[in-house]
TrEMBL record:
Protein name as catalogued: Histone deacetylase domain-containing protein
InterPro entries: His_deacetylse_dom, His_deacetylse_dom_sf, Ureohydrolase_dom_sf
Organism, scientific name: Rubus argutus (Southern blackberry)
PANTHER family linked: HISTONE DEACETYLASE 2-RELATED, HISTONE DEACETYLASE DOMAIN-CONTAINING PROTEIN
Extent of Basic and acidic residues compositional bias: 254-271
GO biological process: chromatin organization
Compositionally biased region (Low complexity): 279-289
Occurrences of domain Histone deacetylase (ranges): 71-170
Amino acid sequence: MEIYRPHKAYPVELAQFHSADYVEFLHRITPDKQHFSRMNWQDIILEKIALYLITCLNSVKLCRWNNRCCTVMTVSFHNLGICFFQERVMLRRKEGKFYAINVPLKNGIDDTSFTRLFKTIISKVIETYQPGAIVLQCGADSLAGDRLGCFNLSIDGHAECVRFVKKFNIPLLVTGDLPNEIPENEYIKYFSPEFSLRIPNGHIENLNSKSYLSTIKMQVLENLRCIQHAPSVQLQEVPPDFYIPDFDEDEQNPDERVHQHTQDKDIQRDDEYYDGDNDNGPNMDDAQN
């Protein structure tokens, strides 16, 4: 049997399994560092992420990120209602102050009004925050005809928002994709006559006046001025480390006790009479003399 004792992993070894930035961060971080105290170690995120939500009834737990650090910014376009959201445009809590943007919209907003507001706000967010990755969630409850939502958006409106975000060439994860074909179910009649998810805009009154949308836009843009431009975890150059050299048996003093590392490397031979060098008892030594 061979015994392998683990040794301390050095950055050059960890870099074989993790990114260089992550290894450097682990190598430099200490509990007394300021940026460590404002980050949740269990939910550590080194890359700045922007999460954009297009939904009517949003129930994502944003406080898990934004109340603790500024490495995640959320932008939520949602329906303004007593049961779901209060009339406010931004959460302001703890270290996540100004990094959770809420855009409350009234019933019946259409593609034209929504995409115009979406492009203006998202452009400013990307310019100010400069995220390293984007997660875009397009909620189906914001589509026209949805029995839970109150918006009047179409698939084309959602697609225009996705195309706009893609133009920034930032790594993008889009969630909420569904096939256009609807399988047979007890509610299939509600999708007649085409029986597909591509539903046109309905005849719903748009309660979002130009003055209201302008006020919301100005409030969001004003709050964006309060955040630090492009916050990030500062990583500094770390001098390279080297592997611990293996023991050179030829350089060891034979009069000194054998090191544990050397004993571990000694493989027991099956044809030896004794199990080990220490198995010779005092009686056997006397008999030999």
